[in-house]
């Protein structure tokens, strides 16, 4: 009861989703956006963006000590990414399910990585792993004025 009360007081969750440079280069931007759009989440921010090295390092700071960190930073800054902010109740965990396991060979068919990728180092998409990180990452990747508050026409057909 208490966590639900707190969650309702804080409003719906937000998650940061990003098409990584391989997804952009492979022409998968529309396909990936579509998965979240069709599901019924609310798109609040969207841009094509060349990520600077310091931003990539800040975004992935929890992985700084991992051996793959330098290659990860090189990968994320190797070309433009598509940055997205999505909102909805339960959007963080649901988006992680839609994305699939980190290793695309272990990702279920039907998930983005399961359908569209073969290697962990080229797994086409990022999704925040907690509501706290969703907020943190959206604040990191978007400037003020780049997030839209709006009510889509389909809203009454998504929730009773
Ligand atoms: N990564 C990698 N090698 C690994 C683990 C992760 O290259 O052994 C990369 C991969 O692109 C992954 C990202 O680092 O998506 C972040 O890792 P994390 O464990 O947070 O996976 P995710 O949350 O993206 O599924
Ligand atoms: Mg992660």
Automatic annotation (TrEMBL):
GO biological process, one term: GTP biosynthetic process
EC number(s) per entry: 2.7.4.6
Cofactors demanded by this protein: Mg(2+)
Alphabetized UniProt keyword annotations: ATP-binding, Kinase, Nucleotide-binding, Transferase
Catalytic residues in the record: 126 (pros-phosphohistidine intermediate)
Binding site for ATP: 20, 68, 96, 102, 113, 123
GO molecular function, one term: nucleoside diphosphate kinase activity
Catalysed reactions, semicolon-separated: a 2'-deoxyribonucleoside 5'-diphosphate + ATP = a 2'-deoxyribonucleoside 5'-triphosphate + ADP; a ribonucleoside 5'-diphosphate + ATP = a ribonucleoside 5'-triphosphate + ADP
Domain Nucleoside diphosphate kinase-like: 12-149
Superkingdom, natural source: Eukaryota
Coiled-coil annotated residue ranges, if any: none
Family listed: Belongs to the NDK family.
Protein's recorded name: Nucleoside diphosphate kinase
Organism: Rhynchospora breviuscula
